[in-house]
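Practice problem 4.
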């Protein structure tokens, strides 16, 4: 019995040490989950709150990024002439995300160096570096600032340095807030596990933002039969105008 116990003590490190070594050298990873991977947009859509949660294999900081498909926005410059404001130049800006939500457990500048933030597209200022302007303005920087300000006011661009909550160093959660006006399509959801200025792990998921109900049918019909859709819409508006005219004549 003593010999068996002695052999067990001698052989135990041979089994325990490799297991511990594998656990210590295992590649960092994170598990990502969402409350819902689909968002239905109707005429009554007023925005949506999305719960993001997951688990971490190693301690570190967490960054959650939600990007929508590219969108286009028309920006109009206002010029002041005396006490009046008149409409000036109009520029259409395209080829940039319509919605960008960046949440983190700490301020980004404390988590990643500037070069890494730019590479991952985590700097809102760099989001518009590949944007296209039509027509090309003289001062692109001013128009870029105007687009960013409009997106932030709309709630489409959101940067929250305390938006991710980490519990016990292993569980994390965050709330993404989709604005009422947002582009349709497949959104990219990326979560990064960061430690000492390096990305240890990344998880990716897509969220489908789709139009449903009568709005979906009208959009498909207009896309598949644009000429017929235009004729029907014109006739409908003409009939509506004629009906309102008859009603107003009777009242008078």
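Answer key:
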């Amino acid at each position: 019995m003593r010999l068996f116990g002695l052999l067990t003590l001698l052989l135990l490190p041979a089994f325990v040490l490799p297991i511990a070594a594998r656990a210590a050298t295992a590649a960092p990873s994170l598990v990502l989950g969402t409350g819902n991977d689909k968002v239905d947009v109707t005429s009554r859509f007023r925005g949506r709150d999305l719960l993001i949660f997951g688990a971490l294999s190693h301690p570190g900081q967490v960054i959650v990024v939600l990007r929508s498909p590219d969108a286009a926005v028309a920006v109009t410059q206002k010029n002041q002439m005396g006490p009046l404001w008149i409409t000036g130049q109009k520029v259409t800006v395209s080829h940039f995300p319509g919605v960008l939500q960046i949440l983190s457990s700490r301020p980004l500048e404390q988590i990643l160096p500037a070069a890494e933030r730019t590479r991952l597209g985590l700097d809102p200022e760099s989001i518009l570096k590949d944007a296209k302007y039509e027509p090309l303005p003289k001062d692109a920087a001013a128009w870029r600032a105007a687009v960013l300000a409009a997106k932030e006011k709309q709630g489409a661009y959101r940067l929250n340095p305390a938006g991710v909550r980490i519990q016990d160093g292993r569980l994390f959660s965050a709330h993404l807030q989709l604005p009422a006006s947002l582009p349709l399509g497949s959104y990219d959801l990326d979560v990064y596990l960061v430690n000492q200025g390096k990305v240890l792990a990344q998880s990716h998921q897509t969220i489908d933002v789709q139009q449903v109900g009568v709005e979906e049918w009208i959009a498909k019909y207009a896309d598949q039969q644009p000429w017929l859709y235009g004729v029907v819409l014109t006739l409908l508006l003409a009939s509506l105008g004629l009906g309102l005219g008859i009603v107003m004549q009777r009242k008078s």
